[in-house]
Write a structure and sequence with these properties.
The chain is mainly alpha-helical. It has one domain: Orthogonal Bundle (Transferase(Phosphotransferase), domain 1). The protein has seven helices and four strands. The chain has a two-stranded antiparallel sheet with strand order 1-4. A two-stranded antiparallel sheet has the order 2-3. The longest helix is centred in the first third of the chain and has 25 residues. The chain starts with a helix and ends in a 45-residue tail after the last helix.
Length: 224
């Protein structure tokens, strides 16, 4: 299998895992609101685990809180007009684009990561693909997820996530098999035991000074 085909297959598998997670959350009326690669872990079976629910919120109709990672923010969130699950499907489009292209579509091209520039790009910049991007099916699903008009965005129509699942790019994915973890994952991490952290970058705790706890004798914590 050529490298480009393998990358596309990998992106399809991982984004499919994320789509299933978002679909489940939305059935529970929960918005995730912080989709990005840093919040996606690979478990012992090679499947995606969505982590860090610090921005998650149960919403019956819509909410107005501005939160998330700049390059993944949906235009309706940036403009403060109120939003619902639409922001998660926009972020899914950004994720797929980044996995296939290596960068996010509305990033600050100067490399400075200026948040105002990113927000202006999200609201007004045209969606462009690298010159060598030839996968029309992948392009179609990305364009469908990154439509600024919420009423036309994939995932926000009458059939919800089914419109994404049934797009031509995902045609060869067995969603039932993926949900039951019966599909072969692109990569299985080597894990020696439940406490093995060798797959994570080392973290020097000495970078941060933590004041040691000292009991002053009043035993205030006995109630806990």
């Amino acid at each position: 299998m050529r490298l480009k085909e393998r990358c596309c297959k990998t992106a399809k598998f991982y984004s499919g895992c994320v789509l299933l997670a978002l679909e489940y959350l939305h059935r529970k009326k929960i918005l995730y609101r912080d989709l990005k690669p840093e919040n996606l872990l690979i478990d012992a079976e090679g499947y995606i685990r969505v982590v860090d629910f610090g921005f998650a919120k149960q919403v019956a109709d819509r909410t107005y809180t501005v939160c998330g990672t700049p390059e993944y923010l949906a235009p309706e969130l940036v403009s403060g007009k109120g939003y619902h699950k639409s922001v998660d499907y926009w972020a899914l489009g950004i994720l797929i684009y980044e996995m296939l292209c290596g960068y996010s579509p509305f990033c600050d091209s100067s490399g400075n990561g200026d948040q105002m520039t990113i927000c202006k790009n999200i609201l007004h910049a045209n969606l462009k693909f690298p010159s060598g991007f030839t996968d029309r099916k992948a392009k179609a699903v990305i364009e469908g997820l990154l439509i600024r008009d919420v009423n036309q965005r994939l995932g926000c129509l009458r059939r919800g996530a089914l419109d994404i699942k049934h797009s031509p790019w995902y045609k060869d994915v067995s969603w039932d098999a993926m949900e039951q973890k019966k599909l072969k994952a692109p990569w299985i991490p080597t894990i020696r035991d439940p406490l093995d952290t060798s797959n994570f970058d080392p973290y020097d705790e000495d970078d941060y000074y933590v004041e040691p706890y000292r009991n002053n004798g009043d035993n205030w914590d006995d109630i806990f």
